[in-house]
Amino acid sequence: MAKKKQSVPEYGTVTRKGTLYYRTRITDADGKQVSLYATTCEELYEKQLEARRQVDEIIFHRKHPTVAEYCEKWLLMQSAKVSTATIKGYRQNMKNYVINSLGDMYMEEVTADDIRLALVPLSQKSKGLYDTVNMLIKCVFYSAERSQLITDNPCVGISAKGGKASKKKDALTDQQVAILLDTVKELPPYLFIMIGLYSGLRREEILALQWDSVFLDESTPYISVRRAWRAEHNRRVCQVFCVSYNRPVISTVLKTKAAKRDIPIPKCLVDCLREAKANSISEYVIADSEGQPLSYSQFTRVWQYVVVRSAKERTYYKYVNGQSIKYTVKPTLGTTQRNNPKIRYTLNFDVTPHLLRHTYITNLLYAGVDPKTVQYLAGHENSKTTMDIYARVKYNKPEELFEVVNAALNQENFDEKSPISMVKE
Fold it and tell me: What is the tens place of the pLDDT at every residue in 21-35?
């Protein structure tokens, strides 16, 4: 059977740079007129059909986006008010736990069961990760509902509970603090650890701290938090190979508004900072050999001075005859490293940069500082964060609560409206 011949419409012509072209106009997805040109009517007709197909596809996807497409749009909208690092974390979590399972589905096709199935792998992950992904999914679908892209929101009724609760890390004891400081004395991380333990600054606040924000000669010495550090990971492409590198960025944009604060510091930290300032060649309190703020990789190397002195079990991999062999080593507390006798295993507890800050906050609460003052000194925007720590500190020792409870239940003077007095009557 002979193929039906296409009816090619007639087009107007226009001369451009001495060449005659056929021309037509179409309306694009944004409602704007776009001109198409070709040297023959048949070629222009094919161009017109392809352009209309593309416009129809764009319009369809705008009205019926896939989960992957709308997630990317939502991230773009959030980038105007959320930091680059936060967006990077959101994008990674969406890719791993939302787009991989739901990405090819249209938004209006997703059901509550689809979301529950997507959350199943996260039930074996930490509660923090589960909560983050759960929040991202709900934000995306509630945003689509407000934009009238979907009529029924599948997130309604999805439980926020899930994931494995992470073990709460206890603050360092006074004995552990003494061991830690003795271990790193005269080593690069010593100043960082002192600032963390005795001012409670976040890692990004310590690494961005400059001497113009350290007031040692005041009647009440204090540190003024006005800057934050972050690392930008980039990739430089050469003709031969790719080189990954990172560089520090110091910004006046802090984590929250509450992060901007003035913190009084004790004498031990004042003396430590005076000595560091006298030997400093940089405007930064923590700096590299050239006086510049530390990059991410530089800070990692500095913190390794702490990690390698831990008696914690560790795993190594060695290549033997082209195969990767796993070795597990359990250092003995008090012994030295076989290949480097200068390194002695003195730490039988975990230490992280954030644990220094947690220890500072815990010590304030143990000392009886009221939670509202602790909230200010810690730079917590949400009082719940402070109160959660307060509850763990104050109510995790039954022996300290015994007298309080006993006195409350056996008090002689009862309030008229007290439930205890009503029971006694």
Answer: 989 998 888 888 889
